[in-house]
């Protein structure tokens, strides 16, 4: 039975995602290539590895055994590469880091930039995910460290404080609620919104609307927080975004800002991993750096 590392990474990604399509995307493979690899793995092994259903895929008992060993193998390889990268001239190491939208855009660039500048032979594979997806990926060995909010169950991962992310509502100064300093999401959920084109934060906000029986009315979608503020300033709609980004934009734009009072709108962000002692040396160093330099005001 011969599986290469790409096979193992793909299989873990599919198991964690519960979907061949999403697993293929996470493994940077086309759906056709991923499907062919999975069929070949089952043919070579002579066993069924996945139960395929209308709602996605789940591992068989043989698949669970393969996933367990794949995590051990890939984890050991990552630790080997990290440890060798500290000693071998010219050998590069990569730390796999997952983060939610707020962490990636507001809290991570400065401390990560400082760390990368001090470690020129180490690269960081940084990807944006929802906190719930990050927990699954870290637990499944698909990434070294992650940054998650306390809105999700960390599932026994090792956590270290990183930042506090407060969400606010941004609106035009002429908006009827512009003079309000604190607003409940229920007060603006049925209004016109401007949102991000994609990302974990936008998914989170729209899920909160669904939780109270609404579908968010998004008039336009943009790619940046600056774009959200510009749209809101023109009265296109209200926008929910991190307070740090809103305050920065308010220096040059005519917008009003109100803090959301809902519990889910104040999120404590943590750096997480499965086990610090088991991390590759570069990932362990980066995790310590982020925990020491995080923003907890």
TrEMBL record:
Keyword Cell membrane: no
GO CC annotations on file: cytosol
Gene3D superfamilies, per the entry: 3.40.190.290, Winged helix-like DNA-binding domain superfamily/Winged helix DNA-binding domain
Keyword Lipid metabolism attributed: no
Domain of life from the UniProt record: Bacteria
Domain HTH lysR-type: from-to ranges: 3-60
Molecular function via GO: DNA binding; DNA-binding transcription factor activity
Alphabetical UniProt keywords: DNA-binding, Transcription, Transcription regulation
Pfam family, one: LysR_substrate
CDD domains: PBP2_LTTR_like_1 (cd08421)
InterPro entries: HTH-type_LysR_regulators (IPR050950), LysR_HTH_N (IPR000847), LysR_subst-bd (IPR005119), WH-like_DNA-bd_sf (IPR036388), WH_DNA-bd_sf (IPR036390)
The family this protein is said to belong to: Belongs to the LysR transcriptional regulatory family.
Protein name per UniProt: HTH-type transcriptional regulator CysL
Organism this protein belongs to: Edaphosphingomonas haloaromaticamans
């Amino acid at each position: 039975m011969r599986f290469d590392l790409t096979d193992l990474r793909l299989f873990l990604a599919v198991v964690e995602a519960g979907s061949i399509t999403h697993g293929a995307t996470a493994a940077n493979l086309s759906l056709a290539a991923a499907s062919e690899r999975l069929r070949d793995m089952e043919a070579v092994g002579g066993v069924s590895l996945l139960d395929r259903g209308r709602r996605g895929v789940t591992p068989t008992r043989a698949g669970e055994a393969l996933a367990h060993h794949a995590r051990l193998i890939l984890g050991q390889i990552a630790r080997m590469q990290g440890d060798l990268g500290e000693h071998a001239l010219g050998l590069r190491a990569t730390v796999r880091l997952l983060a939610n939208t707020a962490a990636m855009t507001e809290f991570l660039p400065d401390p990560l930039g400082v760390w990368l500048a001090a470690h020129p032979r180490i690269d960081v594979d940084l990807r944006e995910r929802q906190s719930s997806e990050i927990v699954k990926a870290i637990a499944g060995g698909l990434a070294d460290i992650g940054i998650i909010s306390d809105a999700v169950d960390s599932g026994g991962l090792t956590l270290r404080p990183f930042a506090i992310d407060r969400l606010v509502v941004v609106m035009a100064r002429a908006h009827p609620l512009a003079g309000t300093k604190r607003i409940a999401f229920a007060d603006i959920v049925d209004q016109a919104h401007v949102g991000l084109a994609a990302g974990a934060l936008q998914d989170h906000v729209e899920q909160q609307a669904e939780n109270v029986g609404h579908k968010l009315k998004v008039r336009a979608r943009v790619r940046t927080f600056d774009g959200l503020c510009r749209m809101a300033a023109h009265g296109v709609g209200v926008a929910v975004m991190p307070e740090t980004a809103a305050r920065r934009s308010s220096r040059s734009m005519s917008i009003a800002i109100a803090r959301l009072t809902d519990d889910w709108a104040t999120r404590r962000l943590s750096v997480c991993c499965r086990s610090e002692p088991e991390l590759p040396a570069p990932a362990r160093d980066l995790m310590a750096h982020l925990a020491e330099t995080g923003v907890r005001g």
